[in-house]
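ok new one. same drill as before - structure tokens go in, u give me an amino acid for every spot. 174 of them this time. try not to just spam alanines like last time pls lmao
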């Protein structure tokens, strides 16, 4: 990494991603999401596992808590689900349906903590969001089955998330 020190959030994201890839086969399935860590400088791929016992995964069956609020790096054995989720089915800019709706998961953190650096940078300082954000893509407009986020989706999903979090469509927990 050319000797540049990573933010703790980037190190946490990298540690969690490696851990999830290493343990991939312990879960019924995994999906790639987009992780906007509070202290990260850039988005990261999130390997999001499906809960045990799930046969046909839906968005609600994803173990998103592994990525939000510390994840594997700080709570490897404790399941915490203090998160909000919001599904976006239509473009907030045109109103047209998205081919693949997205679900934005946020970890409820209080103001006064670090701003989400990815969102702050993406919005040129306008987005004042605190805490982690995870974006998961749905397979289609008519079902809530997850599918992989790919690099082609990153920019669009980041713009949509930044917009809805800046405009107050999704509210920050106090």
């Amino acid at each position: 990494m050319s000797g540049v020190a990573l933010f703790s959030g980037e190190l946490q994201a990298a540690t969690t991603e490696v851990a999830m890839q290493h343990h991939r086969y312990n879960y019924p399935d995994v999906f790639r999401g987009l992780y906007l860590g509070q202290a990260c400088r850039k988005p990261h791929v999130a390997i999001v596992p499906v809960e045990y016992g799930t046969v046909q995964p839906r968005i609600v069956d994803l173990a998103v808590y592994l990525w939000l609020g510390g994840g594997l790096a700080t709570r490897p054995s404790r399941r915490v689900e203090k998160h909000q989720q919001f599904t976006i089915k239509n473009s907030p800019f045109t109103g047209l349906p998205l081919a693949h709706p997205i679900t934005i998961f946020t970890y409820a953190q209080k103001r006064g903590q670090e701003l989400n650096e990815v969102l702050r940078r993406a919005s040129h300082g306008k987005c004042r969001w605190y805490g982690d954000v995870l974006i998961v893509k749905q397979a289609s407009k008519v079902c809530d089955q997850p599918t992989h986020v790919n690099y082609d989706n990153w920019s669009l999903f980041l713009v949509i998330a930044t917009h809805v979090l800046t405009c107050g469509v999704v509210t920050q927990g106090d």
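Confidence is low (pLDDT under 50) at residues 1-9, 73-78. and btw Helices lie at 8-22, 71-74, 117-122, 151-166.
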